[in-house]
Amino acid sequence: MTMKVLYGTGPEDIKGYDTDRLRDEFLVTGLLTPDALRFTYTHVDRMLIGGAMPVSEGLSFGSGAEIGTPYLLSAREMGIANLGGSGTIEVDGRRFALENRDVLYVGRGAREIKLASRSPETPARFYMNSVPAGADLPHRLITKAEAKPLELGEARRSNKRRLAMYIHPEVSHSCLLLMGITDLAEGSAWNTMPPHLHERRMEAYCYFDLAPEDRIVHLMGRPDATRHLIVADGDVVLSPAWSIHMGAGTGPYAFVWGMTGENQEYNDVNPVAVADLK
Fold first, then answer.
1. What is the tens place of the pLDDT at every residue in 119-136?
2. Cα(205)–Cα(181) distance, rounded to whole angstroms?
3. Nearest CA to 278 among 222, 225, 218?
4. Could you state, in order of their start, the residue ranges of all structural domains in the chain?
5. Could you give the percent of the chain with pLDDT greater than 90?
6. Which positions ≥6 away from 16 have C-beta within 8 Å?
7. I need a surface site. Which of 118, 135, 181, 254 has the fewest CB within 10 A?
């Protein structure tokens, strides 16, 4: 297991960032690597982002040595989304089977988590978000069929999409974590329209199901001083509360969104008109 640490930055700081510095601070790459378990700890609301792709053998974790607690989830909750083939997750001896686009909520206090793929030819791709939690809630598997879908956008504006809520008060309770998956409709390219700010929450975007030759152009920064990141399949963008977030792809794609902060009100946002962006 590897653990990278990011300390976060403010909107004034990024005005002088070049491309490499912007990517170093806000883009997490290489999470979904065969037979590797990788985490990134960000001081932006202390979200922990992880990825694992067990191929030839299972992968396991649980120690909290890297963050100063007895176990990684001693004071945290976690959401694990399967973005690949069939797999299993074992939490303290309790086994869950996850198909593509299923999400497992792991409650605070879990000690050992084991990840495995059903077939090495089509390995599971486990993407994880973990945040501090102040309550003990039971583990729960939320299947793709159990997620709550919302139809958003318009085809004529190239932003028609289906947002599926998984870890959300309307589907499965958590302490502070929100997590879901958005799929773009065929022919649409833009996500998260209109752009907006979450003044009371941060968000992480994990883009997936991109072809190797395709990329996402992810826009971030203050509305009057936007910046962009070029994002590949499996990359994760950290979006602090002060930053807008929106993007467009050169081909079909989907993304996992994970949020944490002061509340779980999905619509607690400050919209920004596209015409006001600079």
1. 999 999 999 999 999 999
2. 10
3. 225
4. 2-276
5. 87
6. none
7. 135
Q: Could you please report the per-residue DSSP string of 217-278?
A: EEEEEETTEEEEEEE-TT-EEEE-TTS--EEEESS--EEEEEEEES---TT--EE--GGG--
pTM of the model: 0.95
Backbone angles phi, psi at 144, to 5 degrees: -60, -35
End-to-end CA distance of the chain: 41
Quickly state the pLDDT bin for 247 (edges 50, 70, 90): very high
* Order of strands across the sheet that contains 87-91: 59-61, 113-117, 87-91, 94-98
Residues 6+ apart with CB under 8 A from 238: 6, 25, 26, 27, 28, 42, 44, 47, 49, 202, 204
The CATH number of 2-276, from 1.10.357.10, 3.50.50.60, 3.40.50.300, 2.60.120.10, is 2.60.120.10
Q: Are 96 and 143 in contact (CB under 8 A)?
A: no
Nearest to 270 by CA among 222, 233, 237, 204: 222
